[in-house]
Amino acid sequence: MTKRPNIILILADDLGFSDLGSFGSEIHTPNLDRLAENGLRFTQFYNSARCCPSRASILSGLYPHQAGVGEMTEDQETPGYRGFLKNQCVTLAEVVKQVGYRTYLSGKWHVGEIGPTERGFDEFYGLLGGFTSFWDQSDYSRLPKGRPEKRYNNGDFYATDAITDYALEFMEDAKAEGEPYFLYLSYNAPHFPLQAPKEEIEKYEKVYQVGWDHIRKERLERMKKLGIVSKDTELSPRAKYWNRDRDIQGVNPAWDSIDPDRQQDLTKRMAIYAGMIDRMDQNIGRVLKELESNNEMENTLILFCSDNGACAEWDPWGFDNWITTSNFLHRKEDLNQMGGPDSYHSYGSGWANASSTPLQLYKHYSHEGGISTPLIAHWPTKVLKEGQVDHRPGHFIDIMATLVDITGAPYPSQYNGNQILPMEGESLVPAFEGENVAERTFCFEHEHHCGVRKGKWKLSKVREMDWELYDIDNDRTEMNNIKDHYPELVKEMINIWEDWADRTDVYPKRKT
Predict the structure, then answer these.
(1) pLDDT tens, position by position, 121-172
(2) CB 459 within 8 A of CB 442
(3) Strands of the 468-471 sheet, one edge to the other
């Protein structure tokens, strides 16, 4: 009998569509690029626009509202918005445990107060909630309680490194037991606060002095050469931005119009962000080295993706305080402290626009820049389209179906006495093997930002605006709204979305 494959699902946090070298970036990501060159890249794979909903969907194989996490972890007391994984879903860990898998989570949970070891994971290390310092080990937990914890000397702890330390330990445990394993390696990089070791930041300070307009143009040209987007793709205009309360809005400015002091501040923010991605890639390299040393690369499925699009929160300058979203202009000597333990930055909508190149908008939104993830699949025994780029649409709901397919684990109709909703997705194995698939339909909603994809057609909607229609095969950047030319199609797709919203608990939604 062939041994069941190990499965490593690597999730980055707030990584933009074009932030990897294999997807067009200038950021140094050789380990992920190696997986892409020897695996398969999906260019139209969708997440759920924000961290908590995406994690709920990826873990459950359901749309996030069905799993109870339509927004964040606040309980809004309606079925789609409980803020934790409901009993009507099962997790990836709960499913594969049925066929003998050891199950591990190292990294970020962020799907509510019912924790990972209560939802099928044997071992956990990381962040139970959302975002916090990368330098403070007291914010990170080890479960089940009583398990031995690693101790780091002052100044030696950095979350991305520590998350990998525990992942490697978990892999060793599984090897000693001779069991296949599922490792959910859920990094909190490069989510704000933007914090990185100085040696990583220094690599990129000069790179980003050219500004976001130049970076966007260069990325698009590389993306065309790599086949990530078509050769006739035009660069979308600088994107609009809004804060959450919609009382601040505008369009990202031209880089050359920005005061030099502000340019220096923004350059440093992007350099820190790039350094975080670089360091994450280095740590993924440690995982790959462990697999190679144990001769396990051939029989391990590795999936890499991002939980949402690039984070624009909330304007071109970024913020230095999450609570007040206030910005401080860093100048002169203060620039040297940016990215350290006492700093707390986001990089703002201008750089997020670059990270989303060439797509429209960012995290929170159902336009392509908000829901498109750079998915890499590497599995030498199954991924036959080595080094190729696949443009078929897919969704996080497909990961459950894929794991059920390759492990032979039964997907239950009942679990712990509860009725379980059926899987929403389809296995990716046919895509790995180069088979064609039928047209699919996906729907999206987060904070009243909506979308529906049916074949090549896409309806997108910012919450206070009207629906827009795009032909994604010819207009991935959503620049040419053709809604007025296809009124019957628009009506049909809005009905699809409304039926989906009723079925998946998007409604009712408590006003908050």
Answers:
(1) 999 999 999 889 999 999 999 999 999 999 999 889 999 999 999 999 999 9
(2) no
(3) 441-446, 449-454, 457-461, 468-471
Residue 327 has pLDDT above 90, yes or no: yes
C-alpha 68 chain-centroid distance: 19
The two tokens of residue 437 are 């698939």
Give the pairing type, strands 181-186 and 6-12.
Answer: parallel
Is pLDDT at 1 greater than 60 in this prediction? no
Which residue, chain included where needed, has tokens 């330098």? 135
Which burial class, exposed, middle or buried, applies to 98 when counting CB atoms under 10 A from its CB (0-12, 13-18, 19+)?
middle
For residue 226, CA distances in Å to 167, 219, 363, 374, 387 come to: 31, 10, 24, 13, 10
What are 275-296's pLDDT values in tens digits? Answer: 999 999 999 999 999 999 999 9
CA–CA distances in Å: residue 245 to residues 86, 193, 248, 345, 447? 29, 21, 8, 20, 11
In terms of residues, how long is the chain? 512
Alpha helix locations (H) across 332-477? 348-355, 368-371, 398-407, 429-432
How far is it, in rounded angstroms, from Cα 471 to Cα 478? 8
The residues annotated as belonging to the active site are 51, 110
Pair of tokens at residue 16? 């933009």
- What is the signed CA dihedral for 400, 403, 407, 413, rounded to 10 degrees? 10
> Within 13 Å of residue 276, how many CA atoms lie on the same side as its CB?
32
> Which whole-number Å values give the CA distances from 300 to 38, 115, 258, 296, in the listed order?
13, 26, 48, 6
- pLDDT-derived band at 510, boundaries 50, 70, 90: low
How far, in Å, CA of 279 to CA of 188, rounded?
12
**434-459 as b/e, with b when 16 or more CB fall inside 10 Å?**
eeeeeeeebbbbbbebbbbbbeebbb
Q: How far apart are CA 296 and CA 168, in angstroms?
A: 13
Angle at 266 between CA 216 and CA 190, to 5 degrees: 75
pLDDT at 512: 47
Q: Are 346 and 14 in contact (CB under 8 A)?
A: no
Short-list 452, 425, 447, 424, CA closest to 363: 447
The confidence band for 2, taking pLDDT boundaries of 50, 70 and 90, is low
Residue 363 corresponds to which amino acid?
A: K
Distance CA 399, CA 401 (A): 5
Rounded Cα distance, 304 and 32, in Å? 8
In single-letter form, the type of residue at position 390 comes to D
